[in-house]
Amino acid sequence: MKRNAIQASANQLSVPSVAETLALRAVHRAISDLRRGTPVLLRGEGQALAIAAAETVSAAALAEIVGLSATAPVLLMAPVRAAAVLQRPVPLSAPDEGVAALRLPAGLTSPESLRRLADPTEELLLGPDGGGMERAALPPLATAALALAKLGRLLPALVAAPVPDRDAPGLLSVSAADILAYPESAATTLRAVGEARVPLEDAPETRIIAFRAADGGIEHLAMLVGDPAGVLAGGGAPLARLHSECFTGDLLGSLRCDCGPQLRGALRRMAEEGAGVLLYLAQEGRGIGLVNKLRAYALQDEGLDTLDANRALGYGADERNFLVAGTMLQLLGIPRIRLLTNNPDKLAALSACGIEIASREQHAFAGNGVNDRYLATKAERFGHLF
Ligand SMILES: Nc1nc2c(ncn2[C@@H]2O[C@H](COP(=O)(O)OP(=O)(O)OP(=O)(O)O)[C@@H](O)[C@H]2O)c(=O)[nH]1
Ligand SMILES: [Zn+2]
């Protein structure tokens, strides 16, 4: 069997320690619990917080949290969403505190009202005065709580109540510090787990290598077109593209974005040159997931642009971590590239991972009438280099 020279080095950089594996596993399990509406116990700094996602919490889970705490639960949200709910600005108590707590009036504690309070695509439940909702003191570990909901690609809104710092029967305990370290820890434990030759319409000489992190999350893919190792051996830099998954654009040909033409265009250009590597990253919707991207589209149809729509949901404009891409290139033995992109963040992130970017290759496609505003926002507000 003929083996690609690059494939041989496509294994793991270093074996994760037992502690690292346990930490990743606990966070991954906690994400699953939040997604199915089960409460989770956050622990750290001698404190503990019982949380459940507002989007999925059941009446039984709410009762469980209430039963564990001496105080009434509060609603944790991104400040921008809290301001929309209260219908007045929410000044932050510290410059980097990306979370606010709201006291829940008695009439607003059903799972249905919590879900609606969390979701900006729903009609506001409250009157113009905020319906009796008030800010509350921020409980401990609130930042990690919001981060966990985001890792679960849920709306970043949680019911939360401080509880005694000891195990609670039936609830999974997870360390707040492990949650905050998770994106980086997961990226550094990637290893190649499967590969095959997959001739593509646009690039017949293509191999696909799948990478999986120790958390067992969704795999990232590398498409090796032609012979990138040969280009490197000759002292050159192969073409490379970091492509974040876009179900609607890549698979369905959605006109709302430029992902489809960018994906096929990159593969075609690599095939024409005889070499290239396309990293297909499991970062749907700039890292907010497909469901939230659909919500963001609904908000865009009401007038917000792509950046403000993300923020209205409580997410950042771009939640991606490109360390996964840097790690994959290292595992593939590709330390030097010519990067097809218009996004300055990708250049900075790969350089920070020690990848040498020999040049940036522009990767722009004409608007189609539907995506013109999206492309304009990328240029004007994301600083894309068109
Ligand atoms: N949240 C959100 N994500 C979107 C929207 N439109 C497209 N996306 C996602 O944006 C990502 C596209 O990213 P990339 O193709 O890497 O594009 P980019 O960051 O503009 O960088 P370059 O194309 O390299 O210049 C995909 O994950 C899409 O699903 C949108 O309106 N909202
Ligand atoms: Zn897209």
TrEMBL record:
Pathway: Cofactor biosynthesis; riboflavin biosynthesis; 5-amino-6-(D-ribitylamino)uracil from GTP: step 1/4
InterPro entries: GTP_cyclohydro_II, RibA, RibA-like_sf
Active site feature: 318, 320
Cofactor stoichiometry and binding remark: Binds 1 zinc ion per subunit.
Source superkingdom: Bacteria
Enzyme class: hydrolase
Function: Catalyzes the conversion of GTP to 2,5-diamino-6-ribosylamino-4(3H)-pyrimidinone 5'-phosphate (DARP), formate and pyrophosphate.
Family statement: Belongs to the GTP cyclohydrolase II family.
Protein name: GTP cyclohydrolase-2
Organism: Roseococcus pinisoli
